[in-house]
C-alpha cells in the first residue's frame, strides 16, 4: 500500500475522533493523534528506481553503524562529528549517531516526524492558551495544515522542516505569549532550530529586526517599508552577503553556511533545483493562497482577539523575503512552507471570527477556500509524491 492512502485514512480517522472526543482533552488528543500520524514514517520506502533522501540517510546510518561495530559507540560518534557530511553540524551528527545505535533505520524517520508533529501541536496549544478559540477549530486547522504540507518532505528531509516548525513554535512562545520566564527556553529553541538547519537563520534575523520596533524611533511605517523593500530585493545584495560569510568562514558552522550559499543564493535552474516545474508552480500557488488569507485577515481584523502586531510584522517580513527568493528556487520553495507554519495563528483567528459580524460572508468564503485548497493540495502531493512511497 502506498503512503498516501495510509496517511489520508489516518487524517480522516484523527479528524473524526477529534471532533467527537478531542474537544475536552485537546492536549492528550494531539499527543495520541501525533503518534498515530507518525506511525507510517517508521515503515516508508520508495518504489523501485525512485530516489528519496530516506535512502541517503539510511545509508549514512548504516555507515555510522559500521564504524560503531568496529570502533565502538564513541568511535562512531567521533566519526560522525569529524568525518560525516554533517561534521560541521554537531547537533545533527550527534542526532544521527543516536539512531545508528538502533538496528532499524525507520526509527529515525518515525521519531523525527513525531517530534515535528508535537511542535505543530504545540503551536496550536499555545494559541488556545492565549485566545478564546474553540478546540474544534484548532483540530480542523491542524488537519488543513497537514493536508496542505507535503509530510513526506519532512520524513525524508529530517532537518529543514523540523527546524522551521521549532522556530514557528518558539516565535509563538516569544511574541504571542510574551512570557519573560520562558525567554531562555525560547532563545535555546531558536539556537536549536539554526543548528538543525542554517536556513532558519534568516527568520531569526527577521525576529531580531522586529524586536527593534520596540524602540520608539524604529516603530514607524518607514521602518517597516524599508525592511519589506529590502527583503523583496535582497538578491541585489547577494555578493555582499556571501562575502561577509566568507570572511568568517574559519568558523566551521559559518563555513558550512557559506558553502551552502554558493548553491542556494545565486539562482537555480530547474535541473539544479531538485524540483519539478509542477512543484514550483503549485507551491507558488500555496504562497498565493497564504497571501490572500493575509488580506482576509487584515480586512476583518479588529483589536479584540487580534493576533499580536509584532507577530504580524514578522509574518509580513517573512512573506517579503519569500517573494524576494523567487530566483533561488530551493530557498523560495522551503520558505513558503515556513510561511504556512507561521500562518497558523492567522488561521485560528479567522476560523474563530464572530459570525454575527458584517464580514461573516468574507470569513465563510475564506473557510471554504482554505478547506477546498487543502483537499486540492493533498491530491497534488498524492500524485506527485505519496504514490511513489510504499509502506
UniProtKB/TrEMBL annotation:
Keyword check for DNA-binding: no
Top-level taxon: Bacteria
Keywords: Membrane, Transmembrane, Transmembrane helix
Spans through the membrane: 6-22, 29-52, 106-127, 139-167, 187-210, 217-234, 280-300, 306-324, 331-348, 360-382
Protein name (Swiss-Prot/TrEMBL): EpsG family protein
